[in-house]
Amino acid sequence: MNKHLYLVLLFPFIFSACNLINPKEQTPTYLHLEPFIFTNVDSGYTGSASHNIPSAKVVVDDQTVGIFDLPCTVPVILTKDARLTITPQVVNQGLKSYVFSYPFYQSDSTTLFFKPGQVQNFTPKTKYAGNLSSTSFRLKINFEEGLLFKNLSGDTSLLLEKDRSKVIEGENSGALYLNQTHKTSESISTNYFEFPTNDCFLEFDYNCSIPFAIGLLAENASGTKVQEYLAGFYPKTTNNKLYVNLTTFKSTYSSYTKFYIIVRADLNDEDGKYKEGYLLIDNIKVISR
To answer: Is the pLDDT of residue 273 over 70?
Structure first.
């Protein structure tokens, strides 16, 4: 009899232990995010509203859920309504595997309601950060006011493209055309900018059928010049936007006072793979706080 009694008493503890080991799974609330909408209320000094925000960082009540390609549907475990923050993520220098929170775009926020099993839709909005001013845009070249580039080396240079079927945005774009007669080009901006003490980024739009590189030429007070190409890009025949961090270059050449944009393409670099090709470039900006 006692043996059966022990079994009866033991069964509740067994079931309780099973519940502790295998707790009931919570049903998530689902968040569906569409791509960011970019607004440009201060276009007089910010310039073009072109942007490329492929991903978003999702934070719920100060806890990071993850970084997701847009559009996406994200399961979130909640116990109550929560504060949702969506931060724009851009691609660093065209490296798709490396996205980061762009410091000059604003995050968006809303309430994520505790509704297990249901989907809440949200389209985040962003714009340039509110603490940017006209002086934060250190250099802008949109080719609407002219070419603003000249030949630095090579047998051809950037020119002003006015053909609306080729122009990326507005009335004009910068353009480079290489062929077997003109194989090499290195161009430099005629305008320069001075480096700030804070972080600094280069933005630009492009499409191209040949590889190219973009970088900076620095000049100090005595006229000494040094140049460095910061990133190279392979052909992409649809319009694209890139973001390049200039901060490391700035720290390396902190004693220099003038900084120019340089653009280079050379058919000889690719062992004859490209016989001819083009580069279209537009909306060049250097931004800092």
So the answer is: yes
